[in-house]
Write a structure and sequence with these properties.
Number of helices: 13
Structural class: alpha/beta
Order of helices and strands: EHHEEHHEHEHEHEHEHEEHEEEEHHEEEH
InterPro entries: NAD(P)-bd_dom_sf, Shikm_DH/Glu-tRNA_Rdtase
Strand order of the largest sheet: 5-4-1-3-2-13
Distance between the termini: 58 Å
Length: 363
């Protein structure tokens, strides 16, 4: 039996619209963005060939045609209605479970209202996003020569649903931890929880730049529309896992800082001969972790709203990791700003970082 799913995407910015609809790229960007605000949901492509020794699945990409900026600026009710309309398209196509991608997973109550208005299961994919972000960040740190038990880690966006669980799980492995977010009270509540669970006294701040000064590992998971981490913010040898879309890390970091490693969180190899029939910037057979969560739940026949809302549990992350192992989803190496990063390149970054630290007199 082939189980069915759909995954919702949307244009991050006006360039995404121009790439898909070439002629529109010649019009003024704000005009195009405004026109798409009134566009109906779009069936983008059919996804085939998702297959493990245990199950098969097929699905669709469906697009909610408003940019990240409009998702933030338009009235919440209007945005939720657009997302629900797109979900109803997925339902009509025959999907049994719908994954919410990028900003569609954070608008309003993070999927709860969307799920209430559909007759199919809904997931944000955040459980597997956390699992792969942590796995990737820890493996990248090891390749950069860091001993996790001696590392200082920073979680930016620590009070969000992804950041919160990332912080709680990362605290098990590192020497010290700083939590960054805007709301002090929520930061302090999380810090107390981490102290109770792990014995680590996590520091809290809203000052990103100060927090990053001595961080060997950074996980950033905010819903900021613009970049918030620049080349001057990071120490040599830092490993930054940027889970956010749009990115939190400026591309200038890759261009100007050859002594730090920036990786994209949650890049996953999908089992089988998967064909997405749509280019979202990854090599064949690879997807974001949030997409992968939707696929593996479909393969498992678990048509339930697995990850919804702002409260994500450690148990959910552990359970989805088990399903990933069962069906053969796995971390697919490292990517940085849409390109693969080889072990040789990581080795060169590590050597440059060591040289920079030596010049600064840091052991």
């Amino acid at each position: 039996m082939v189980h069915t799913f759909a995954f919702m995407i949307h244009p991050l910015d006006i360039n995404d619209i121009a790439r898909k609809f070439g002629l529109l790229g010649k019009l003024p960007p704000r005009l195009v963005e405004g026109l798409f605000k009134y566009s109906p949901p779009i069936k983008v492509s059919r996804i085939t060939g998702v297959c493990s020794p245990h199950a098969r699945a097929e699905g669709w990409f469906v697009a909610c045609p408003i940019t990240a900026r409009l998702m933030v600026e338009l009235p919440e009710k209007q945005v939720l209605n657009k997302i629900i309309q797109t979900g109803k398209l997925a339902q009509k196509l025959g999907a049994k479970i719908l994954g919410l991608g990028a900003f569609t997973s954070v608008v309003g109550d993070a999927g709860i209202t969307v799920a209430k208005n559909l007759d199919i299961a809904v997931t944000t994919g955040n459980s597997y996003t956390v699992a792969t972000a942590l796995e990737g960040a820890k493996e990248a740190a090891r390749l950069m020569g860091h001993d996790l038990q001696k590392c200082h880690a920073v979680v930016v966006g620590a009070t969000g649903s992804i950041g919160r669980v990332c912080a709680r799980m990362l605290a098990r492995d590192v020497r010290s931890l700083t939590l960054v977010a805007r709301e002090k009270k929520r930061l302090e509540e999380l810090s107390h929880k981490i102290l109770y669970e792990t014995g680590v006294a996590a520091r809290v701040t809203s000052d990103i730049k100060q927090a990053l000064q001595n961080a060997q590992i950074v996980i950033t998971v905010t819903s900021a529309v613009d970049t918030i981490i620049g080349p001057e913010d990071l120490m040599p040898g830092a490993v930054v896992c940027d889970v956010s879309r749009p990115r939190n890390v400026s591309k200038q970091v890759a261009e100007k800082r050859k002594d730090v490693l920036v990786i994209e969180g949650g890049v996953v190899e999908v089992p089988g001969e998967v064909n997405f029939n749509f280019n979202f910037g990854f090599p064949p057979g690879m997807s974001y972790a949030c997409m992968a969560e939707t696929m593996m739940l479909a393969m498992e026949g678990r048509f339930e709203s697995f990850t919804l809302g702002r409260d994500l549990s450690l148990q959910q992350v552990e359970e989805i990791s088990r399903l990933a192992r069962k069906h053969g989803f796995r971390l697919a190496g490292f990517r940085s700003f849409e390109r693969a990063v080889s072990p040789e390149e990581i080795s060169r970054i590590r050597e440059r970082a060591r040289a920079a630290l030596a010049m600064a007199g840091v052991k």
